[in-house]
Amino acid sequence: MRALAVLLAALPILLLPACSTGGQKTEKAPASTATTTAPPWAKGMKTVREDRLPPEARRTLELIAKGGPFPYDKDGSVFGNYENRLPRQARGYYHEYTVPTPGARNRGARRIITGDHAERYYTGDHYQTFEAVVQP
């Protein structure tokens, strides 16, 4: 009888981890993963909160919001999405902006890509991977 009482007393402690993760083991989310709900256009994509982007990327987003001026001639040019890593859209839907890379002698590999419906994506590796930029 005493063993049953101890087991019943310990049961909530044993079940607590299963309740918090739906019974599944999960890895700790990387610091860049957003904790907010992703917008519909970002569904299924890795996300990054705007406040977790490099400071140069946040500055580029500020320039985009103001309409410029932009430091690079190619800023605002059409992004072709030739790698097909973003949702398929008609040509001209996406535009790209340079995110300066400290120490780089050229434009570097970092970009912000915008979509016609306020979508924003960040790539730090020249279009190999993208993260949907979400508000905190």
Automatic annotation (TrEMBL):
Q: Which Pfam families match?
A: Ribonuclease (PF00545)
Gene Ontology MF term list? hydrolase activity; RNA binding; RNA endonuclease activity
Answer whether the UniProt record assigns the keyword Nuclease to this protein.
yes
Q: Has keyword Signal?
A: yes
Q: Which key words tag this protein in UniProt?
A: Hydrolase, Nuclease, Signal
Q: Where does the signal sequence lie?
A: 1-22
Which InterPro entries does the record match to this protein? N1-like (IPR000026), Ribonuclease/ribotoxin (IPR016191)
Write down what this protein is called. Ribonuclease N
Species annotation: Streptomyces triculaminicus
Lineage summary: Bacteria, Bacillati, Actinomycetota, Actinomycetes, Kitasatosporales
